[in-house]
## 1
Amino acid sequence: MAIDKDNLKATLATAVAYLLALAISIVFIKQFFTNHKRKKKSSCYLNTEVSKPQYAFKRILAENSYSQFKHLKLQTLEELSNLHPYKEEISKLLKNPNVGFLEFLDEYYNVKDGLEMGDSYVWIENEAQLRELVEVLSKESVFGVDTEQHSFRSFLGFTALIQISTLREDYLLDTINLHDMIGLLRPVFANPEICKVFHGADNDVLWLQRDFHIYVVNLFDTAKACDVLSKPQRSLAYLLETYCDVSTNKLLQKEDWRRRPLPAEMIQYARIDAHYLLYISRCLYLELKLQKNENSSPGDKFHFLLEASRRSNATCMQLFAKDLEASPGENAASSIISRCLNDQGNISPSLCDSKFQERVRRLCLWRDIMARLHDESLRFVLSENAIIALGTKVPTTEIDICSIISTADVDVESMTLVSHQSPSPVVSCHLEDLLCLFQDSITNRDHIFELFIQQHLGPAGTCPLSAYNYALLSKIKLRITNRPTSHRNGFRASKQSTKRASRESFVRKFSCKSPVYHNCKIYANDGRLLCYSDRRKLEWYLNRNLAKLVEEDPPSIMLLFEPKGRPEDEDNEFYIQSKKNICVGCGEGNHYLRYRVIPSCYRIHFPEHLKSHRSHDIVLLCVDCHEIAHAAAEKYKKQIAAEFGIPLFISNVVDFDMAHNKTTSSLPVSTSEEIGVSPLHLRTAAMALLRHGPQMPSQRREELMQVVMKYYGGREISDVDLERALLVGMSPHERKKFEKKRGYSFKHLPGCIDLNDENENNIGFKGETVDALSTIMSGTDEKLNYEDNLMVEDKEESTEPPCSNSGDDIAALNADDNDMSDTKIAPGISKELTVHAGDIQPNHDTKFSLLGHGPHGKQVVEYLLKEYGEDGVREFCQRWRQVLVEALHPRFLPAGWDVMHSGKRDFGEFSVYNPSKKASDVAAS
Ligand code: AMP
Ligand code: ZN
Ligand code: MN
């Protein structure tokens, strides 16, 4: 009888479930048809959905690619291995546990009752509050910690809240708002003098690494103490009830911790999780101390206590790592298949044939890719039940897919949909994919992988690129083409043209002719901020399909290729600080540019490994401070020139044909200062005379004539001589090109006045550089040649991306000139397409630097290396840092910035003035 009743109940439940499923299916199908058109047009749901909070994160350490997590590197010198950065400190604690804080807590609670939890707590949501908290915590000897995670709408999950309790206060840290700054707590957590009390820290320790590169050193885990004490239970709820008479609703643990403001109930729960930890650890301490009397060996005074501490700190040695499978989705597929074979999947094991297994594998692969690229959890994308149902029922239409999934997601027990949305928006927006999975035409799962990543994230992808999914592209062979690939799909083609249009408008916006510095950001392909930049550089990358626009205002791009070096590979602190985006001189935050402390005319000639201090030797400066620093640097260059006897500029030129009455050689020859004239001066004068000669006041004309005459050895000159003077310094090829373009107009329109050219000292430059920009846009390089001519010798510089700079001190991307240009720039991209100097600040010096610094810089560096070796170069760098410091007296230099950086040696020790000291250092080391 009882059995019958149960059977009836079960049958009824099943019937109701199916009815419900049917109803849901009908509703869904209706909805599907109404939405079909709209959905197709709007493509991925992420384009329309209210943004997920993690998309505001800038510093993303763990993205969703298949490459392993990179841990904090404290020392540049440390090998490439992913070691625990605080291995040493933790090892020390394992050998000599530091449990003094427990005695301190014991004394504290002997006089004070620590049980009650008042109404007051501190909500930490901005940087100032966080910094204040860091101050407070660094003075504590112990505090309690807990974290809350969000994992449903995120692939790897993220920390949504950190609770910290001291003896005086409960702090709740909004780690969503403060995500990029929580790293400020790193020193406190790594400080072995400060004990951190957690309950069950195994996960928290890894989560803190994953999100913030925070590593816990000196942990007391109350759960570990329970283990040592062989407590009947080790849950926090048990400890709270036993020692504090507090009950807690652990169901709240699964709440959505992204909610803001957090409801009072959740705040209460969160506080409780950290507040009582200090009191509980004191209670456990007393018990651990008691244990020694019965069990510990004599002399081993705190045996149990030390064991609890040792086990806690062993937890800290763990390192976060992404689960990387041999083949994406493989683990989930295997588990689903074995579940079905064991008759647990509500399908008959007989249905579990090889075709079914293949379908499950494909679905799991697809789910894995889609979860990563939309930054969603696997279960949000597609439930296991849905995968089994799709695998058995084999849908043939998109509607089929939807109804199979929503039916599978009906929970028989509660008669409700398991998930809030079934099918998930990921499924609804990418139904074509799923249908494609059930076609036999695709045989190789690797193809599926490439196909989907290309379709969704490739140059014409349907889904938004983000910091989370960018690095996925590196998994497939990245083909960057300027020509968009054609799609059969009309929808995709139109999508693409909108994309192109928006990019064109972006480029148009960029083409402002005024010298504006922009707060544009350049992210690496894994979302890490590489540097700030101006718009032109962004544009340069965008035009070559080397980057994608990820933010509009201020515009920011993400590189499509892996840059050679990362700022944080070297020194994390600088990296964090430079993100502060203020001038290191005066603190100005509205505009700034990256300034090269060591002028690149020298730096480009450094041996590769000595270029590695680039994140240190690039600082942000506002325009005003930049000008000051730049002027000081230019002045110091002159000093260097005098000191080393290596002139800054190419020496004067003279026409030897004329001077010595020879007939052939036409190349200018360097001579001493007294005779001849500088090539720039010569060209400027000749150009002015050719263009404006007749209109000029006669005195000025005479002056300029004298300049040109100096070149020709003092003889009278003709218009032909003037034109020839213009060609000085060009290679024959450049000359031919120039003659073809320019010569014509000079010959035939001698009186023509270029309105761009009111000032003869700016001949050619002003108009030229504006044109140069449009030249880059249109992809022709004609006009640039004229400018290139001016770059005597500085060939290396001309291969870098546009370092829209006024001298050679504004940093190119990521501070390393060659990083980008020699990595993965697609073939066919002309490396000559480089806007060069002189176009932002109409500063006369810039022209000089174009002409002369190449040989100077090279010779200086060669001299240093020859005379003093690499130490000479290091010392040389220190001198330039000193120049900056003396020019600006900067008040906002990043912590740790140091004139002596990289030098374990004192300033001056290897000074070129004092070379004898070199020997003493070798002896000392
Ligand atoms: P707790 O410290 O116990 O509040 O847990 C911290 C975080 O771990 C929570 O915010 C959850 O995200 C996650 N978590 C722990 N246990 C579970 C569980 N059984 N189910 C879901 N999430 C959990
Ligand atoms: Zn999508
Ligand atoms: Mn908690």
## 2
Amino acid sequence: MATTTAPSLSAPAVTWDVNDGIATVALDLKGQPVNVISRAVKDEFLACFAALADDARVRAVAFFSGKPDNFIAGADIEEFVTLGSAAEAERLSADGQEMLERVARFPKPIAVGIHGACLGGGFEFALACHYRVATDHPKTQIGLPEVQLGILPAAGGCQRLPRLVGARGALDMILAGKSERAAKAFRLGMVDELVPPPILAEITIAAARRMASGWRPKRKRPGGFVGFLLDGNPLGRGIVFRAARKQVFERTGGHYPAPFAALEAVEHGLKHGLAEGLKREAQLFGQLAVTDVSRKLVQIFFATNQLKKDPGVPNAPPPERVKRLGIIGSGFMGSGIAGTAVSQAEVDVRMKDSDVARVARGILAARAILDDRLKRRRVTKYEYERLVALLSGGDTYAGFGRAELTIEAVFEEIGVKQQVLREAEGVLPPTGVFASNTSTIPITRIAEAAHDPERVIGMHFFSPVAKMPLLEVIPGARTSAQTVSTAVAFGRRMGKTVIVVRDSPGFWVNRILAPYPNEVGHLLAEGASIEEIDSMAVRFGFPVGPVTLLDEVGLDVALKVAGVMQEAYGDRLTVPPGPGIAALVKAGRLGRKSGRGFYSYKGGKKRGVDESVYGLLGIHPNGGPRPAEIMQRLVLGIVNEAARALAESVVRSPRDGDIGAIFGFGFPPFRGGPLRYADDLSAERVVADLERLAERYGTRFAPSDVLQEQARRGTKFYS
Ligand code: NAI
């Protein structure tokens, strides 16, 4: 049967053929890696459905993606960023809603077969169809991630999902911008049927055929009796919405308007009906689309996407494909790297430590990462078993001879690092890369011990490795482009966002972060309280304050890093008066890991400030500086150092620098990173503030040359 297409100027994305009463439609954006819904695609959809409505042969429709591993990734974000006004954005949403209304009311039933990412507008389309079949493949991810871009699902998603799965389930997905694997989506009621990929087409077409003969799916309200109590009546729903609002506030500190707007769109629709809900949804989308927060989140999204394609060096040779990974040092970081490498990159991992007992502990710790994924049903029992089998280790280098990449995470001592490098070089394959996870030692120094420094590089992971999204890759003075390419590519396979950073003290993240905890000492000495310092940072938008951060990192680790930073940049990092953190470390208070630091911890939970800390530090909180000034001192120290480090080319671009700050230590994403933040304030204002602080608190706040120059010329980091 001949394939029919909708009229279109360029190659058509929507094609269909009719067979035995069923129209099989496929969406495939030619020349694009994934399907997205743009204006052009919408027009083709409309033309296609108009033709199918008129075609007397067609009794039902089965819809698929023509891409091998992607259904529809969402609405076209490129189109979204060109929106100039709230009214224009509202219209875009209303257009999308209208199209999906037509799909929902289409006179012939539509079944959709989902394989691969089905996100945002893609899932909203699926929601408008009458029956959803999804493959049980790991690539099939279903959800509404819009709030992560500072907007809300605005093609009916805030209306149709709660009607399908109940308010609780829908809010859980929408407010966190989550996507779920198909199995979970099936359990939640987001899809009707779960099938292995080879039979997706057959089952979807069969469902279309059944619906053509009058059959309709019967859907139970999920959640049983409790679900009925909470979702099925206005009183219960009131409770659900109040709880959700509170939770969103706790999670976002009120910095992100999108989840609140989404809540309102859902609530409004359930109270006043679908049509009113859609209207409110479009209005709220209009308002959100032009907010500064949304712009920032979209910039981060684009930057992260660009970094996914960035090989890290100009004219990079193709990376060596890592199939076997060696890890030396199976402690805290080594085991974290091992577990993450296995679960994300599915490579064979061989660990080595000085004795087998330590290796065994390391393997158990690595395995805990897999256990967690199993518990959260991110992997099946079968996949879990297969992944666990990839972990092995011993007290010798057996197995390292075939490792394309080896990462060391031994003690932070140059002698030990150089020793294991020499040992490893003796057994690694001729092209094997040796990476160090050092946080403070120059890679070039470590590489001095190597026969072949071209193959030595830094891969600086952050703790906990499984959760922290950033990796700094640090080429030494003699590292080859091939080595960089291999390290960057592997970091990415581990699921990390990778920035390439110059070999200099603290690299990027620890360097620009250094003024933050350092300022804590000064603030405490001036009489500020621990709670106040932390709360001002949180109010600015950091996930945790600097004192909590110190406890999380471990005070011993922080002290060591501080020493290196002090030595390198001491003129700017003036030491606060008093005994400082060293006194706490001496007293065995290392932070969370030892149950006591600035705060006390019980059963893994943070309790209040451990007041005895003030005695150890020889200080007493008595007010201290004004809260607004505390915030300014914490933030501008970072901004100033970031400006300076960028000027020294520690990162390649403001983009890399901001991404490093956001993903490395949680600089508030809605502010776009320290460099973007400086641009927003204007260099003139930053310099004026820094000068005032320098006058009052000393030269550590003296504005960097680059900021001064920008202030003079009126230029910015981002042009
Ligand atoms: P750790 O003390 O937990 O682990 C070090 C492991 O290396 C121990 O199991 C030890 O037995 C083993 N080891 C020591 N010498 C060895 C040798 N010659 N051969 C084989 N194994 C040997 O330390 P952690 O925290 O995992 O740190 C490791 C590295 O990671 C350090 O360079 C550290 O600076 C770096 N790092 C640490 C971060 C953290 O937050 N802890 C963050 C980023 C990097």
